[in-house]
Amino acid sequence: MVLHRYWLHLSTIVLGLASPSWASFENTRVTRSVDLGGSLVYTTTTYNVKALEDGSNVYLFALTEKEQETTSWMEAKVKGHTAPLSLENHGLSHDATYYYSVALPKALDKDQTASLVLETVQAHAAYPFPPEAAQDDRQALKYDTDLFVLSPYKSLTQTIRFNTVGFPILGYTQPKEVAFTTGTIAAKSNSGGAIVFGPFSDLPPSSNTDFIEKHQQKISIFYEFGFPMLAIRSLRRAVEISHWGANLNIQDEIDLYNAGPKLKGQFSRLEHQTQVYQHRQAPHVLTELALQLPAGIHSAYYYDTIGNVSTSHLRIAPSASQGGLPGRSSLLELRPRYPLLGGWNYSFTLGWDSHLGDHAGWDAEKGRHVVGVPIMTLFGGAVVEDAEVKFVLPEASTDVEVFPPFSPSSFSSAMHTTYLDTTGRPLVVFKYKNLTDKHTGIIYIAYKVPLSAHLKKPTAVGIAFFSVFFVAFLWKRVDLNLEK
Ligand SMILES: *[C@@H]1O[C@H](CO)[C@@H](O)[C@H](O)[C@H]1NC(C)=O
Ligand SMILES: *[C@@H]1O[C@H](CO)[C@@H](O)[C@H](O)[C@H]1NC(C)=O
Ligand SMILES: *[C@@H]1O[C@H](CO)[C@@H](O)[C@H](O)[C@H]1NC(C)=O
């Protein structure tokens, strides 16, 4: 988990003392829906809760060890509300469960109810099964999980539903000797693209070793997936800001791979061409990518280790300053130099320029520039295992303040000098792990460029720069400044 790892140790101790008697709620109903994808699996769990005592305001979510290991993003809300609740990670408890708490916006009195929604994205939770496939085989994946959603509270009913994106479920584990039910345990939908386990009734608190040992069961869903399993091993974004040319350059170095089944036997280009020609291309062969880039960009380039690649198509949307509607994106369709089979890698570099005014604003109150850049190029359904975003600020910038949309796993700053610079350009680097398509957002960075910068001595600038302020979660304030 990227987001909350800072909490782990301290909170484990605190919760360890308080844990067993948090019986201030009961779940009247728990329903989990799991959207089975490729590299990413999305879960949504709705907890209908009832307070058992007055003033109940802290609710605990429980994750199994396996869920904790794969969960890369999570968000909790009161159903129907848009503002997320702040989730606090309490780490691993003695009963083999990870707890997250939320404070309800309003405490509940006895018998009052609320509906809470917990969404998560799991990375690399599904895997190719079998691990190898012939060129004309379909792509089948397997997802392993637990039958019961854990909770420290009693649950009157519970169901768990698995959905594919329109492809058939090929098989599943039939749980045996399941308690808490008298009827059917597993029922597949008529279309074959969904399966429901449950309902189970009158479950005692389940996030404890006693329940887990007696009742928890592993289940697997085996399903067809009709898209390539795209994963990004690393994405290094470099952002270079130049006030001289009023230019912002973004360059992404991308190492991607196909996490789908490995090819059984030899790759046949003839068979591949035939499949393409007949529009029945193997889903486990990646042949093209469609990427959304910012509006109003120009001079886009795309090259790999061999050289320029011309098989790409870019449709540029006008930026707001060019009269375009806000929120539009340009679309880049590109073809890797070769079709990418399961286990194959492809590295390439993608870059473009933008008019600086499309990304920058002037904070008049503080007399500084503010530049906002998306944290990454989104690859739908893919996990970015290692991400880096590096800003190269204008020469002699001072008073640098950064506002990332969520905390990085590491953050550093340094001075970058090229032979043209006399004083050097401040460099700010953010690193992240396991970003998903829910990790959207803009990194804002504020800095001053003194008019007299070119007169100052390098040492003076160096000292000023190293007072970089790290301020997460305050970006909204800056956002307002940009809209002026
Ligand atoms: C990233 O995800 C992988 C696979 O789910 C996991 O093994 C790894 O621990 C995660 N890394 C971090 C820093 O969360
Ligand atoms: C790619 O093409 C552009 C012009 O189209 C050229 O300026 C650049 O040097 C080429 N890069 C490589 C790596 O071949
Ligand atoms: C892809 O890259 C990974 C990591 O660099 C490497 O272990 C693997 O062997 C590569 N796969 C192929 C088919 O070259």
Automatic annotation (TrEMBL):
The lineage of its organism: Eukaryota, Fungi, Dikarya, Basidiomycota, Agaricomycotina. It is found in: Endoplasmic reticulum membrane. Residues 1-23 form the signal peptide. Pathway: Protein modification; protein glycosylation. PANTHER family: DOLICHYL-DIPHOSPHOOLIGOSACCHARIDE--PROTEIN GLYCOSYLTRANSFERASE SUBUNIT 1, RIBOPHORIN I. The chain crosses the membrane at residues 458-475. Keywords: Endoplasmic reticulum, Membrane, Signal, Transmembrane, Transmembrane helix. Its main location: endoplasmic reticulum. InterPro entries: Ribophorin_I. This is Dolichyl-diphosphooligosaccharide--protein glycosyltransferase subunit 1. Component of the oligosaccharyltransferase (OST) complex. One of its GO terms (cellular component) is oligosaccharyltransferase complex. It is a single-pass type I membrane protein. Belongs to the OST1 family. One of its GO terms (biological process) is protein N-linked glycosylation via asparagine. Subunit of the oligosaccharyl transferase (OST) complex that catalyzes the initial transfer of a defined glycan (Glc(3)Man(9)GlcNAc(2) in eukaryotes) from the lipid carrier dolichol-pyrophosphate to an asparagine residue within an Asn-X-Ser/Thr consensus motif in nascent polypeptide chains, the first step in protein N-glycosylation. N-glycosylation occurs cotranslationally and the complex associates with the Sec61 complex at the channel-forming translocon complex that mediates protein translocation across the endoplasmic reticulum (ER). All subunits are required for a maximal enzyme activity.
